[in-house]
């Protein structure tokens, strides 16, 4: 076995089994512990594995930080307002709130197989396409303007609207409503 093959094998074991002792690796591969250390060295340097109290273990790659940011406006997108766009290639895009979710959807509509948001009142995940959107309610959620809130039930959305104002829209209505408002507020056109 070439060193590179042994390294691949070691990585596979570590991913499957967690932590392994150097002695265990050496006997499985039928090579000396010296050789195992040599094989491990580049893996340690490249942060693929780490030393632990009883051997070595695979480094779980942290999710890159940008994954926690809104793809549309780069605000943090890890709260309950965030929206997920699931694309045909199985990747997921995250936005900070339905405002960005809808605008992003409009940009990449053909790639999106599903859009998921959370009901503002119950926190239950709902399909963005069947959700009801309350736009410009009088309640500051500290995210993007015009502010968009998603609801599962039209009844609850209108009850909420009675208290906080705003206008109710279906999925496609909401998209065209926001994009119109955004055009109007384009500060770069002065
Ligand atoms: Zn955003
Ligand atoms: Zn936002």
Sequence of secondary-structure elements? HEHHEEEEHEEEEHEH
Radius of gyration: 25 Å
Largest sheet: 4 strands, antiparallel
Number of domains: 2
CATH topology of the largest domain: Beta-Lactamase
The helix count comes to 6
Structure summary, number of beta strands = 10
Can you characterise this structure?
The protein has 190 residues and is an alpha+beta fold. The chain contains six helices and ten strands, in the order H-E-H-H-E-E-E-E-H-E-E-E-E-H-E-H. It folds into two domains: 3-58, Arc Repressor Mutant, subunit A (Orthogonal Bundle); 65-189, Beta-Lactamase. The strands form three sheets. A four-stranded antiparallel beta sheet has the order 5-4-6-7. The termini are far apart. Bound molecules: zinc ion (2 copies). One zinc ion is lined by residues 70, 72-73, 75, 95-96, 100, 144.
């Amino acid at each position: 076995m070439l060193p590179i093959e042994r390294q691949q094998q070691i990585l596979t074991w570590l991913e499957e089994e967690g932590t392994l002792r150097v002695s265990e690796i050496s006997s499985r591969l039928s090579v000396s512990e010296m050789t195992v250390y040599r094989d491990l060295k580049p893996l340690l340097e490249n942060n693929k594995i780490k030393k632990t109290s009883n051997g070595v273990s695979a480094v779980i790659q942290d999710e890159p930080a940008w994954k926690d940011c809104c793809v549309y406006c780069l605000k943090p997108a890890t709260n309950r307002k965030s929206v997920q766009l699931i694309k045909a290639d199985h990747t997921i895009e995250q936005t900070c709130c339905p405002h960005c979710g809808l605008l992003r959807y409009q940009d990449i509509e053909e790639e999106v197989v599903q859009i998921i948001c959370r009901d503002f009142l119950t926190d239950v995940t709902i399909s963005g396409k069947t959700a009801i959107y309350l736009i410009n309610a009088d309640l500051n959620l500290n995210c993007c303007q015009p502010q968009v809130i998603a609801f599962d039930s039209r009844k609850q959305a209108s009850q909420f609207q009675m208290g906080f104002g705003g206008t109710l829209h279906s999925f496609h209505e909401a998209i065209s409503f926001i994009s119109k408002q955004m055009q109007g507020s384009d500060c770069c056109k002065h």
